[in-house]
Amino acid sequence: MERSSFDFKGYVMDIVQVRKDNWEDTQYPYNLDAVQSWDRLALHENVTFLVGENGSGKSTLIEAIAIAAGFNPEGGSKNFNFSTEESHSPLSEHIRLSRAPKRNKDGYFLRAESYFNVATQINEMDRDPYRRSPKLINAYGGTSLHQQSHGESFMSLLLHRFRGEGLYILDEPEAALSPQRQLAFLARMHDLVQAGSQFIIATHSPILMAYPQAWIYELQAGGPTRVDWENVEHVDTTRQFLKHPESYLRALLGDDE
User: Could you give the domains of the chain?
Assistant: First the structure.
């Protein structure tokens, strides 16, 4: 029996459905393989990765899932409703989310490209003289995110704002993280998973997508396809380059000898 996806209220997601009614499949974003070639996408109860080449549609898809789940298009918790530019696609209008019985108490949508805007919004809300609630920045470690490096502010979010029992939808979180910080990200994500959280992540990082038992969907010509970590194209390309950097560099840059 199909479960209702409306009035989502933080329940763990188990199925994403694309309803292909009233759309023009020759126009963006409906012409993307990431949305055109499938109807139902099962999600792991802990960690699901969406991977693929630039332009494959993973960020567009994860944005639509986040908006359908009730998050602000530019990121943040469900309490954020600011907008600096209406740039999101209408795909969320065609996304239906099914939910499992387990319920979340927390949630966040992280977009690497608009995290600066989230940090600015936090500062502006904390400066509001009529605001009586505790300062928002206290939930992020107490230091303005603008006073930290990009990578440090991401880690502050993970370490302080993500509290567990949450639904966390992340778009390319590795963008600001060194390899060492990506390893720290894995450790923190594991803590949050053990605390009853669910992650849906679009990424290019072979380090992040190595998380044990995670489901990895590679966005291919036929739509999202479940693959093992060892068979992800990003992983294979990185592995081969690290094994044979000289050969790759000669092919890419030419042989100067």
Answer: 26-253 (3.40.50)
